[in-house]
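Write out structure tokens for Cysteine hydrolase family protein.
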Amino acid sequence: MAIAAFDPARTAVVVVDMQNGFCHPDGSLHAPASEAVIDDVTDLVEEARAAGASVVYTRDVHPPEQFEDAHYYDEFDRWGEHVVEGSWEAELVEELDVREADHVVEKHTYDAFYETELDGWLSARGVDDLLVCGTLANVCVLHTAGSAGLRDYRPVLVEDAVGAIEEEHKEYALGHADWLFGEVATREEITFE
């Protein structure tokens, strides 16, 4: 049963951080559950693209010196060095079919709206509804979707196209999003009008 049919002209799929560093077995922050949703993410993108919706890919990218003068926010301290600018880890996984019409956002924090052009790009195209998928559920997916909600987008987390390190992390993120700022749906529940 569909939660509501989405108008493809006003909808974008936001694929969060499906990169080698997180989704490939050789990645420094590989999570098997993130690798496991690659096919679900690509299927969602194909369905949305066929309907005429926009597609956005985010890439978490860290310049090597990003946290050198950090007072507190230091992802390398928390996670170790990962997805460094120009590295294989920072590249999107090869299974994704990134096309010229798609938009790729480079971000340097958990939130794809923070100090990026994403809000302007979506607004310029009249996008209101975001189908958010990718990884990690309780980190970049959650912070990007929450930031979208604060900007008056309708963030819908696509639960069977979201990866996490632990299943309870995913359950927390989806529950929190559904309770506080967005909605949760399965791919089967999503249709386009």
